[in-house]
Give the backbone structure.
Amino acid sequence: MIDEVVVSVPEIPYVVLHTYLDKPRQPNDAVVIHAICAELWLGNVPKAMTRPEHTFGYPPRLVKEYALQLLEALYLKYGHGRRTGFERFAREEQHSIAQCPVRPCSYHAAHLNPYQFSPNR
């Protein structure tokens, strides 16, 4: 049997951008991003997450600006004056629009009551 030596890695913060869209996006694609949020990790532990918000209908420039605001908000709350880990997103996780966590959501349309449009009202 061989001994295992565990060397702890430094707990460096990093931020993951979560996007919800119709189809996978490639860099510089003009795909509409339905919703967006950011998640802060400290080493192997999730630390914080911004509230997911709908961004469909936003031009790409506004989505990019909003994403940078998410990064800045996490830095201001958890960066403690150190930019390391908050300079840019470590990666982007793309999710199907069907997984959109925002409610009400036009995609899921659960907010529409089938009886709401009844002619007997």
User: Anything to note?
Assistant: The longest strand covers residues 33-42. Residues 13-99 form one domain.
